[in-house]
Amino acid sequence: MKETFGEYINHLRSKNGLTLTKLAAALDIDQSTLSKIENGKRNVPIEILPKLALAFNLDLKKLEHEYFSEKIAEIIYPQEEPQKLLKAAEEKAKYLRIKKQQQGKINF
Question: Which residues are within 8 A (CB) of 71 and not within 5 positions of it... i.e. 6 or more apart?
């Protein structure tokens, strides 16, 4: 997805013929909040992802990937050499995953 997450929600809503009011109710958020999300004036709360997936019959895992990739993009886009940042972050994530697994093991 090359659009923002808010633009994506707007696209889904429009494509499915839903009003702001109907989708906001399905997501259990205020209509003005949804409008701000769609217009990029407010961040998408992670808590709405399962309801969004349900409302549009989307795969929750893919939706989460899009959500988190946008969060990462927001952090790195103003930086020089974002590819190097991504590589470093990937290595750090691997290290943290291994460290967490090792902490879970009990040695006797």
Answer: none
